[in-house]
Amino acid sequence: MTDSVPDPQALLQASALGKATPYADQYDPGLLFALPRAPQRAQIGIAGQPRFFGADLWTAFELSWLNPRGKPQLAIAHVMVPCESTHIVESKSFKLYLNSFSGTRLADASAVARHIREDVSAAIWQGGPVRGAAGVRLIAPEDFDREQVHELDGLSLDRLDIDCEDHAEPQPALLVAGLDEQPVEETLSTRLFKSNCPVTGQPDWAGVQIRYAGPQIEQGGLLRYLVSFRRHNDFHEHCVERIFTDLWSHCRPAKLSVYARFTRRGGLDINPWRTSHPGTPPPNIRTARQ
To answer: Is the pTM of this model over 0.90?
Structure first.
């Protein structure tokens, strides 16, 4: 990491996001546009190695290619990007990249998965050594009927009948915990999260799950805090990292996990997961709104 942190908006100007873009139908890994994680992390006080572990779980519903005889094939792709990678892949560029398989003849699904794994891994490390490869799993059409729909576990914060006045920017001061009380261990969730794309301004809807052990978090303040993202402009991954960082700083949990499942756009959903302790990622099971 260099001493100077790039300007996020300047970097986004070079991407395809928010621009009219032709769709290629021949395999082209050069379509993947990587954005460094460091600038957004610097904005929330993270320099160097973050205090969290985790991954970004992607689901791609619009993946198709041709077999050697020219017959179309298709699959659903689950892609896992480790959060320790130096870069993320901008979502529109990922859609364009996946679309480039549509007119390309490949031997079988394993060849498609291999290309995605290698190309995404190279993009998220931007030419540096690949210290953690992207995980790729393709779901064949004959297995579509096994794909599950399940809501996020946890006590719903949405049951609370409260006033929510802050909608413009995240308000971490709303977060309060019983620091002098007996610690608890609980899982909380909400379906009311919304933020906006930092380039197009389009709404990003999500369910959020928070698992923690430590001083009990005041639930009304937590819900108000999550609702305060409603007009905030940022990518999915950075929103989740901000939530994790604010909870860790203001509520001082001994353990913390933040997981969000965003509704799909352009045939893709992105589901970031951040945790204070290494562990098995949550299963990539979509919610009803996805």
So the answer is: yes
